[in-house]
Amino acid sequence: MNIELLNPYVLKILISARNEDSISSISGRIGLSYGWTHKWTEELIKEGVLKEKWRGVLLQENNHSYQNILKFIKENLNNIQFYYSALQLFGIDYCFTKTDAVYLWTEGRYNIARYRDYYPIFIKVREKDYPLFLEYCKKLGLKINANKGIFYSPEIVKEVICTKKDNSYVETLNNTIDFMRENIYNFQPALEMIEEMYHKRLKIKYKEVTSI
Description:
alpha+beta; Beta Polymerase, domain 2; 3-stranded antiparallel beta sheet; 9 helices; 17% strand
């Protein structure tokens, strides 16, 4: 493959591309202008990774270059950050929930019971989109409901009701507070943070009282 094709735009296109797709759909999912998406798609067509079809493209899954790129992704990008960033390229309805919602609402100040060897990522996925979510995970070698390592822990719902926080879709603050209250022994410090950050009257007393 032409070395110029090994760039972030092409990687995003190949991560996001479905078996039968359109340039406009890919452009929307990866957040790149139609013009630039069209340019790199044309290059991938020349390489035989994509095949032109009327008003769209077909992914050539058995193409040698495509298989090598997938292998590179699986071997080199299989980390926590990739699990989070890849979700944005799937084009599905999802949001972060539970511990991930707490992490986002506390702006990264509270993360509990997760480490490199055991790192569940808690998301809600719309039932209609779940088969597509499974296809992407299989394609990229991303784990679901595993016992160790990094993996998605999805909750399948009819509709995803969420809000946006720091460019991430997340369960609402009130629902996240309810989750923390239900698991108070794990999230009492986080509730106090939320109380201070968002001026909520939660009546949480976690800090030690000191006297002079």
